[in-house]
């Protein structure tokens, strides 16, 4: 039977610990850069603190809204449609570093692709709950998901943002697999995706250069291999205990984007193996508790929601950490709950809030 339970304290503690690490490390990683560019050492810290406050409010609100409230077809279709419109409109925004991913509102960057993750998880959870009894009848069960999520991923790809598009597909793929889809379909899809990914990489000079740099960064240490080389130097010089907070060297104009995509490397240099392991353990705890919540959810909709939001954080963390350690080609994907970036932090904390609410309605014996 289902009964009202307190929220998962272990999950909450892991998430809050990462947010605390974020505020400290964003300042440490960005102070010199912010002072050099803007003459304000606290600029990125101020923004991160503001987004952290908004994110914690979003977490508190989401934690108190019964997740079954979202099981509303009109609401989900409206949200999905609005997100698709935003993904189209952002393509006409001012480019930043050659990409059109942000709306600049009051000096703050808002990424529709982050909101697309929420919409995709909600839409997929609704479709799977209603159609999982015929999951292997692809035209009935998965065609709506393929059309909607495929459209979102395609629009994100046009920004261009291959990393987020692939991450979105991976999140939905995990949810579909959990619904009981025969693994042969997933294997077949993965095989079919290989030539598509090859064409996407081969047709884009900068993606091809990133791939070649990943395979052999030492061949061009001052060019395309610069990011990964500096990242590995930062992690390697940290040792077990690190250089000490604020004592990092690579963030001083050597490591590109030290407060966003490569903040894990700064943690490695300043807090050492102990710091990086602590962060990694927190993400593992979030993944563990999220999967546990999904398995014990009161209904299928809550189970798919929990799995989707868990995957949203875990997949992004895995990709970011792998890039920092040179295990994947460089992607512009932040470390959730830690990197500087308002949209990612806000959406991640909202997802944690939904997870905590689902945990209040766990099925117990």
Key terms:
365 residues, two-stranded antiparallel sheet, mainly alpha
Q: List the strand order in the largest sheet.
A: 1-2
Q: Which structural category fits the helices and strands?
A: mainly alpha
Radius of gyration equals: 20 Å
First-last Cα distance: 6 Å
Largest sheet: 2 strands, antiparallel
How many alpha or pi helices?
13
Mean pLDDT: 89
What does this structure look like?
This protein has helices at 9-38, 43-64, 73-89, 112-131, 138-141, 143-157, 162-178, 183-202, 205-215, 226-238, 263-295, 300-324, 342-359; strands at 103-105, 108-110. With 365 residues, the chain is an all-alpha fold. It has one domain. A two-stranded antiparallel sheet has the order 1-2. Helix 1 (9-38) packs antiparallel against helix 11 and helix 6 runs antiparallel to helix 7 (162-178). The chain is globular and about 55 Å long. The N and C termini lie close together (6 Å). The model has no long low-confidence stretch (mean pLDDT 89).
């Amino acid at each position: 039977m289902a009964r009202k339970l307190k929220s998962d304290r272990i999950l909450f503690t892991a998430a809050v610990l990462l947010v605390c690490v974020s505020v400290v490390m964003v300042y440490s990683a960005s102070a010199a850069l912010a002072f050099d560019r803007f003459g304000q050492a606290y600029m990125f810290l101020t923004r991160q603190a503001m987004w952290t406050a908004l994110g914690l409010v979003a977490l508190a609100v989401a934690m108190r809204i019964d997740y079954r409230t979202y099981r509303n077809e009109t609401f989900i279709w409206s949200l999905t449609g609005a997100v698709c419109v935003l993904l189209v409109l952002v393509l006409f925004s001012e480019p930043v570093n050659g990409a059109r991913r942000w709306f600049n509102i009051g000096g703050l960057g808002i990424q529709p692709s982050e909101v697309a993750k929420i919409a995709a998880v909600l839409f997929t959870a609704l479709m799977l709950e209603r159609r999982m009894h015929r999951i292997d009848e692809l035209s009935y069960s998965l065609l709506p998901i393929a059309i909607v999520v495929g459209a979102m991923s395609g629009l994100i790809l046009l920004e261009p943002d291959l990393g987020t598009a692939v991450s979105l597909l991976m999140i939905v793929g995990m949810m579909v697999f959990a619904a009981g889809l025969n693994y042969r379909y997933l294997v077949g899809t993965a095989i079919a995706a290989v030539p598509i990914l090859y064409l996407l990489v081969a047709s884009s000079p900068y993606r091809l250069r990133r791939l070649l740099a990943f395979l052999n960064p030492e061949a061009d240490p001052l060019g395309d291999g610069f990011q990964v080389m500096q990242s590995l130097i930062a992690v390697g010089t940290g040792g077990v205990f690190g250089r000490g907070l604020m004592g990092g060297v690579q963030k001083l104009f050597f490591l590109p984007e030290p407060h966003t995509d490569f903040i894990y490397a700064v943690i490695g240099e300043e807090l050492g193996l102990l710091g990086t392991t602590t962060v990694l353990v927190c993400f593992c705890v979030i993944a563990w508790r999220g999967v546990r919540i999904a398995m014990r959810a009161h209904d299928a909709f809550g189970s798919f929601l929990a799995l989707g939001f868990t995957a949203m954080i875990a997949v992004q963390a895995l990709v970011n950490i792998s890039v920092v350690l040179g295990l994947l080609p460089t992607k512009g994907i932040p470390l959730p709950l830690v990197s500087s970036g308002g949209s990612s932090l806000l959406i991640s904390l909202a997802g944690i809030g939904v997870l905590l609410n689902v945990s209040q309605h766990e099925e117990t014996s």
